[in-house]
Write a structure and sequence with these properties.
Strand order of the largest sheet: 1-26-25-23-22
CATH architecture of the largest domain: 6 Propeller
Bound molecules: 2-acetamido-2-deoxy-beta-D-glucopyranose
Structural class: alpha+beta
Oligomer: single chain
Largest sheet: 5 strands, mixed
CATH topology of the largest domain: Neuraminidase
């Protein structure tokens, strides 16, 4: 407080007194807020777990041969205002449409011609996330609220499964259909529902499962349990294995469906430069793995110290989700698990699917009201020397 503030004429009200009491009030409310926050953090039962030192020792690999770090430049928005939180994208080449599941329960169909006409197709009454195309044109849905659904070509909904081994799914997340007709799918967390996904990530305990469903027997089988936010799943081109992503671990693993290693699980790619969400094979030798956020220094700290994650969790529970996302986009990985390219943008938020269809990259996301399309011929990822 400077002396000059009350050197004004004697008959004016004394600003120093009002300023001082205003400051006092501010300090007092700040102290009260901090005390309440500390009490909340102390007494709340939310109790994040430490990560293993092996896990903490891993450093993400940011150097990639090629990158497009400004994906929004030159991109178009598709279905703006009509596609709310389009989490996944499924391409049906026969119909020439893409399907996407929205936060209002609608599975929308978007024509792939120049007009990109959006059609309300089916409303699941839940929150459709992962989508897969069946062998007769039916669509399988991993619905966060309703489990695995089948939607016939005519739009009739059939609920297939929503629990395994007596444990109900909490956030059914992604699904694929093998040639055999068997569905493989993930439940990200039996403990937390989709609106609370961040609490799962901050807690740092494995509540996810990889499962299969056989339509010929109606049996649901648990393939792997204790997974860290089991997210995207995709089949290899030969269908000898499938790949599933564990978001907070920044890794994707292989589960062998057939052959010598049948039934085994190993790591396909570890130390991704961001947290993986959905994974899509492009039919041309590359997997496209969406990253809702890049790996950040802040998250590295939070991973190290459970108390920071507890604090973030309390913020999330009682105020709002702290924004920790950065440089969202997609990484491109070859058949051997090497990252060969990255597409991202500082302005992109919570990208959940990146998929290459013909000449374009399509990016879906959890929260924004559109899909992004980028002409890859025009705006390719380039070697670092030329991106700067
Ligand atoms: C993509 O960009 C290339 C190069 O500018 C152009 O030749 C092509 O027509 C574009 N593709 C589409 C589908 O617009």
């Amino acid at each position: 407080m400077s002396k000059s503030t009350h050197s004004s004429s004697p008959d004016s009200p004394t600003p120093s007194t009002t300023t001082r009491s205003w400051h006092l009030g501010l300090v007092l409310s700040a102290v009260i807020t901090v005390v309440i926050a500390l009490l909340l953090v102390h007494f709340d039962t939310y109790d994040p777990a430490p990560y293993s030192s092996d896990e903490l020792a891993k450093k993400p690999v940011f150097e990639v041969p090629r990158a497009n770090p400004l994906v929004l430049h030159g991109s178009e928005k598709i279905g703006e205002g009509r596609l709310l939180g389009p989490e996944d994208i499924l391409y049906d080449p026969k119909l020439g449409v893409i399907y996407t599941g929205c936060s209002d329960g609608w599975i929308k169909r978007v024509s792939m011609n120049h007009d990109s006409v959006v059609e309300d197709w089916v409303n699941t009454g839940g929150r459709p996330l992962g989508l897969a195309l069946g062998h007769s044109g039916e669509v399988y849905v991993a619905d966060a609220l309703k489990g695995i659904l089948k939607i016939t070509k005519n739009g009739e909904i059939e609920a297939l499964t929503d629990e395994a081994e007596g444990v109900k799914f909490g956030t059914t997340d992604a699904v694929v259909v093998a040639k055999s007709g068997i569905l493989y799918f993930t439940d990200a967390s039996w403990k937390y529902d989709l609106p609370n996904f961040a609490l799962d990530l901050f807690e740092g305990r494995p509540y996810g499962r990889l499962m299969s469903y056989d339509p010929s027997t109606s049996k649901t089988k648990v393939i792997a349990r204790d997974l860290y936010y089991a997210n995207g799943v995709e089949l290899s081109p030969e269908q000898d294995f499938l790949i599933f992503c564990e978001t907070p671990m920044m890794r994707c693993s292989r589960y062998y469906i057939q052959g010598e290693k049948e039934g085994l699980i190993d790591i396909f790619i570890d130390r991704l430069p961001g947290m993986p969400d959905n994974i899509r094979y492009d039919g041309e030798g590359h997997y496209w793995i969406a990253t809702p956020t890049e790996h950040t220094y802040e998250w590295e700290l939070a991973r190290k110290y459970p108390y920071i994650r507890k604090f973030l969790g309390i913020l999330e529970k009682y105020l709002r989700r702290p924004s920790v996302e950065k440089n969202s986009g997609t990484v491109v990985v070859d058949l051997d698990g090497n990252v060969v390219a990255r597409y991202y943008d500082p302005e992109l938020k919570l990208v959940t699917t990146g998929i290459k269809i013909k000449e374009h990259l399509y990016l879906a996301n959890l929260v924004q009201p559109f899909i992004i399309r980028l002409n890859l011929t025009q705006y390719p990822a380039t070697a670092p020397s030329t991106t700067k």
